[in-house]
Structure formats: C-alpha cells, structure tokens
Amino acid sequence: MTSPTSAGAPLPPQRFLPYAAILTLAANTMNGPGITTLPDVAVDAGLFLYILLIAGSVLMASYVCRRMVFAMWSSLSVFGGSAAINVDTLQDNIDIAFHEGGEGMKLSKSALSITAANDEDDATTEAADEYFEQQQGIIHRHPLSPNLTRTGSEEDTLLLHHDNNTNQVVAYPQPILEKTSIVGQSLEAYGKNASVYAALTMVASALCLALAQMMLCAAILDGMLVSTTGQSCALGVPTTSSSWIHCTSHSSMKPYAGSGAPTSLISVGTVIAAVFSVGMGTVDLDEMMGVQYSLFACLIVSCVRFAYVFRKMSLGLSNDGEMMDMTAVAEEGSGVGGEEALSWFVGPNPFSTIGPIMFNFAFVVTAPPLISMAKKESIAYKALGMACVAMGVLYTMVGCVGAPVANAVRNGLIEGGDDTNLLSLVLLSGNVEGGAGGRPSMIDLFCIGTFGLSTVASVPVYCLLAKDTLVNDAGVAPMPAFLLSNVLPWLLVALTYNAAFFEAFVNWSGLLILGYSNFSLPLLLDVKLKKVRSMLKGGLADLSGDEGNITSVIFSFLTASISAVIAISITNSLTTAGISFGVVVMASMWPSRRS
C-alpha cells in the first residue's frame, strides 16, 4: 500500500505483521545464548528465587515493551482545529519542555500559527498550509493510511485525532520507524547529540547480542558434528605441534577447549551458521515468517524434549529409582556425602544470577521494527507481552528441571561431565541412561540440531537493528551497512571462537550494556516524550499523571537495581551495592522532582 504525502510524493509501501508474527519474532529474538546457562543459573539462585526472578523479569520486560509501544504510537499529531492557540504562550511552553534537551526539536512560530477554524483570511490559510507541510516532517506516522478507531485508557487520547472530513475520532496508523526508533525518540526528546549516543548504544547492543548468538550457533553445529561423525574440524593458525587443520572429538558446547587449538578458528559449524544467517539477512522480516514459525516450533519441541531428558537423568542418578535427593529441605546447604545440595529457596550465588536472567529478556532494543509493522497499537504490545510470558514459561521449565542435573555435574556424579551448559548436559544423557558408547539417543541429537537451528532465527533480527541504525542514523550506504552488520560479526566470531570468556561475556554484556539499553533507556524516553508531546499538543496539559509517575518510579528502581548488581559483581560487597542503589535512585528521581 502506497500513501501520498501532503506534497504529493508517495511513501514507500507499508508492510504489516499480524499478532502471531510479532509474537514469534519476539520469542525467537529472546532465544539467545542465555538459555543454555539456565540450569546452572537455577543452581546458583535456588529454585524459588529462580522462579521469582523469571517472573519479575517477565513483568519488567512486558511493561517496558508496553511503554515503548505507546511512545512510538503516540507521536505528534495535529493540533485541535477549532480552538485558537496563543502562539507565544505555546512556544514558551515548548522552550521549557526542551530546556533540558538543549538541542531538541525546534518549531517555528509560523508553523504554529493556527487560528479559529472559521477564519478564512488568506494569511491564516497560508500559515495553516505551511503548518501541515512542516507537520509531515514532524509527525511520525504515515498519513492517509486506513484509520483505526479505538478506545482505551485516558493516556490513549494522545493516540487520537479528529478527522474534520468524516467527523470521527480516529487513530493514526503505523509509526515511521526512522523517526520513532530509540534513536529517533532520543533525537526528539534530547536533541542531536543524545541521538548520536543512542545510535552508538543500539549498535553496541546489537553487536553484543549477535556475537553471543553467533558463537552459540557455531558451537551447537560443531557439537552435533562430533556427536554424529565423531569429530569436527576447523581452520586455524598452526601451533608448534599442529597444522592448519585442527580437529576435536570432544562432544560439548566448548568443542575445542583443551584441544590445543588457537583462539582464532574457522570451524565447519561457523561456516554453516554464517551462510544460513547471512542468507536470511538479505530478506525483510515479513518475507521470512515461514522460516521463523518453523524455527519457533523447533525451539518449543526441543525444550520439551530436554525437560523430559533431564527428568529421566535425575531419576537415573538415584539408587532406588526415585528422584535424586539433591535438594536441601530441612537445612540450607546440607547434602549427602559432602555433596553441595540444590536449594529450594536461595542458592549459594544469588546475585550472580541476575545478569544471565536479564540477558534472556534483552530483546527490547530489537522491538521497534516489529512495533512499527503492527496493524494496530494494541496488537503490538499484546504480542510482545505474550512473547515474554511464553519464553518465561520455557525458561522456568528448562532451568528448574535441568538444575538437579547441573548440580550433579558440579558434584562429579556424572562421568565425563565437565560443563553445565544446557546442551552439554543433554549430550551426557547417554552416560546416565546407558546409551550406546555413552552417546545420547538419536532423538536427543535430533532435538539438539533443531534447537541449534532455532537459535539462528534471532541473528537476522539483531543484524537488522544494527543495519537500520547505520543506514538511518549514521548515513552509511546500504551495502557497507549490510557488510558491517551481517558479515563483520562473523569474522569477529572466528577470531574469538576458542576464547575462554564466553560466559563472562554473557554476564557482563547483560549488565553493562544490555541492562541499561533495554530497560532503562526506553522508560527514560517514554517519560520525557510524554512531557514534550503534551506541551506541543496543548501547552496547558497536566504532565504529571499517574502513568508518568509510575514509569518514573519503575525507571529509577530498574536503573538502581542494575547498578547495584554491577557494583556487587565487581566488589562482592552488599554494602557497596546498597550505596550504589541509593545513589542511583536519588540521582534518577531528582530530574523528575525538578521538572
């Protein structure tokens, strides 16, 4: 569908994503490398605290998505046509609204010179024409698209406008991604300098997500090759006692660890995963939905099978056929035979688990393309919220059922167990269940393969975020942007494939970059834009509604919590974490009180 602008220039065709497509894409994007660490995370957190953290993360991510959807769909609309507007007063209010932003968006007084609708003066008509022409550059929606009537909460009135031609209150259709993405919102709220920092943050977030996911995809495929053919090989710089070809027969998610291979490797799994993901990156989101649906189904089937396997492994490790007694019920930290017990409540390292769990829901920065392609605003936030719930259920199932097996590996109860990664635990099922030669069953190998395929689904979305940011905000040409976002990360994966920092990368990137960019930044922009847009719409609107206050409180709490976790991860001190929490809460609430 092509819609003309006020100047007559056609807009690009609009693409739509239905509810199921948005849910599937969001869920696939959350299917990152963090899921493979969840059994081990559940051991560190304790089962009750683990479930509580997952539930809290679902609520947190759903709320942030809801606010982002609203911020994108409540972009500036036309002012009321019948009421006279005092231009000087409104411009003063606009200046106040943008005072903190410095280089925020500026509107000329002529563009705001709208008088009563009955005034037929030529100067007024010319000013109105100029206003609507400039409004096309400001408004963040495609004009003259099919309108959508809607009802909702009090804040939803910002989404509505009055159509004088049909005398109906209608909603503007889809937002324009370039102007309502996180970078576009930063430009509107705080000015050009802030948008540059936001663009750098988005590229860094996409790079963190893509690198971790790409490395996981390659490791899964190499592990599959070892399990099915007996070995996997890679090309790398020769060491003193090897050639250019390095092979391994170690069946785990760290196939080349301890093999003497160099850090930089181009493995068979890396090549296969790179070809598949780069190919998917050449098409648009709506053109790959058949593949995305299939990969999401692969994820669900694989996780259900893994839960079944872990349950059988736990039963197989007990002497009498009952569930292995690895939970401390009566006394925290007690165990059998000196073994460290799995806690029902709070585990031995609860604070170290917040980063990995947060990493699993760090998909918010990839949501704007999905939001902008929704048929209506309610479809966008409901689909994103349901995706968070669906993945939360999968995370809970995999973590809780896999925790006893991960704890058994820690205690040395499983022969050959040296890795608590989710897929490594599945590969150990043959050692517990008496598989041929200690190998897992063909069904388990098949499910590992389908899980590996499902992890590829999110890579094109991460790369799309980086590519769109480079093209729309950095002015990079499409082809160089494609190479930088889709090809360069795979080269970085090859350079660091056999490095030993993968788990640390998941934890620290989840805290330092993805925590703030996915949860703090969208809420900060939502609060700011609501004030700015209310000023621009009416000048006298109340800017301190309940919704804005709630968002400000949640923003302060989340930002302070992320900062406290970073502090305790560095210093291992609860006192330092508490001080950090208090300082960040006061610092983040002070601008709201001043406003």
Can you lay out the helices and strands and say which pair or pack?
Blueprint: H1 19-30, H2 38-45, H3 47-73, H4 87-97, H5 122-138, E1 160-163, E2 168-171, H6 177-180, H7 182-190, H8 192-229, E3 232-235, E4 245-248, E5 266-267, H9 268-280, H10 289-316, E6 327-328, E7 342-343, H11 354-360, H12 368-372, H13 377-410, H14 422-427, H15 429-433, H16 442-456, H17 459-472, H18 478-495, H19 502-537, H20 546-571, H21 574-594
Parallel strand pairs: 6-7
Antiparallel strand pairs: 1-2, 3-4, 3-5
Notes on the structure:
The protein is built from 21 helices and seven strands. The radius of gyration is 27 Å and the shape is globular. With 595 residues, the chain is mostly helical. Helix 2 crosses helix 3 (47-73), helix 4 runs antiparallel to helix 19 (502-537) and helix 10 packs parallel to helix 13. The longest helix has 38 residues, at 192-229. Mean pLDDT is 74; it is low at 1-13, 78-120, 131-161, 319-338 and 540-544. The protein has a three-stranded antiparallel beta sheet with strand order 4-3-5. A two-stranded antiparallel sheet has the order 1-2.
| N→C terminal distance | 42 Å
* Radius of gyration over all CA atoms, rounded: 27 Å
- Assign a percent range to the helix content: 55-70%
Secondary-structure class: mainly alpha
The shape, in one word, is globular
* Strand content range: under 5%
Sheet with most strands: strand arrangement: 4-3-5
Helix/strand order, N-terminal first = HHHHHEEHHHEEEHHEEHHHHHHHHHHH
Mean pLDDT score, rounded? 74
Strand count: 7
Question: How many helices in DSSP terms?
Answer: 21
- List the uncertain runs: 1-13, 78-120, 131-161, 319-338, 540-544
Biggest β-sheet description? 3 strands, antiparallel
